[in-house]
Amino acid sequence: MLSERRLEVLRAIVQDYVGTEEPVGSKALTERHQLGVSPATVRNDMAVLEEEGFIAQPHTSAGRIPTDKGYRLFVDRLAGVKPLSSPERRAIQNFLDGAVDLDDVVGRTVRLLAQLTRQVAVVQYPSLTRSTVRHVELLSLAPARLMLVLITDTGRVEQRMIDCPAPFGDTSLADLRARLNSRVVGRRFADVPQLVQDLPESFEHEDRGTVSAVLSTLLETLVEETEERLVIGGTANLTRFAHDFPLTIRPVLEALEEHVVLLKLLGEAKESGGMGMTVRIGHENAHEGLNSTSVVAVGYGSGDEAVAKLGVVGPTRMDYPGTMGAVRAVARYVGQILAES
């Protein structure tokens, strides 16, 4: 275990390196921070931190920089989440309150996160599997053609066309709409198949084919993996950090293009508990292309359950307290909007 003083020295190194982009020497540390000890003692502390793998010396410099292990200790033990200022919070609220539908909410969230953190923002669409049904609408387009509209509690709208085996009258349509909604509104998607399985038998024989066609379309819509949708913004921000990526920025850009990789990253964040925040640093990211980046992700949703994840990807040399504060604040506002929508 590191002593409190050495933890303070590590915190100072991380803060200075993140702020200046320059490797940090003992003299600069004692001048900039109230460490209460001599430069010789700080040099000794830095030697111990280096020996234990928390800091390293880049080839071209006398100073030291934090390693992935050093950033991990900083995040776990030394970094509080930096709260946003009142103007920042108001700006978030004003920007997100103007959204007209779910696509707009997600689009605005990505732009906002990228601007606030100056990193790459990633937002996952609300997951259908963790949603409940708000309403099912059935519209007649032609005697034997219907449109099914599924609206979820997270504001998501899915539309499907249904070709019926026989013409379906307005009275039957109104009856089916009413019975369907009485069974499924407010229920979780996973429960719906059981709730509607005996519905066709309660209709006249000539209508059962159409009722079955509507139900099978509804159930297909519920299990479709449309939750595999992500929006990414602010990729250009990476160019500001080009020197933070050891060889080239290309592997990072290639990894960001693979949505499967990003979904896996957010999924790993999800496994560590509902709305909790996850920070994965450097080599903790399984994908090789992201070994020089950190990912800060958190769940968003209404109540205690996350319906999806959002977060940012940036260089390991990031302002962790500020980034964590911004990600958490934005997630909270998006959750409120979904709850009210």
Provide a descriptive summary of the structure in words.
This protein has helices at about 5-20, 25-30, 40-50, 70-80, 85-95, 100-115, 170-185, 190-195, 210-225, 250-255, 260-270, 320-340, and strands at about 55, 65, 120-125, 135-140, 145-150, 155-165, 230-235, 275-280, 295-300, 310-315. By secondary structure, the protein is of the alpha+beta class. The protein has a 5-stranded antiparallel sheet, with helices on both faces. A 3-stranded antiparallel sheet has the order 4-5-6. A two-stranded antiparallel sheet has the order 1-2. The longest helix has 21 residues, at about 320-340. It starts with a helix and ends with a helix.
Contiguous uncertain segments of 5+ residues: none
The best one-word shape is elongated
Alpha-beta classification: alpha+beta
Largest sheet properties: 5 strands, antiparallel
Beta strands, count: 10
Question: What is the string of helix and strand elements?
Answer: HHHEEHHHEEEEHHHEHHEEEH
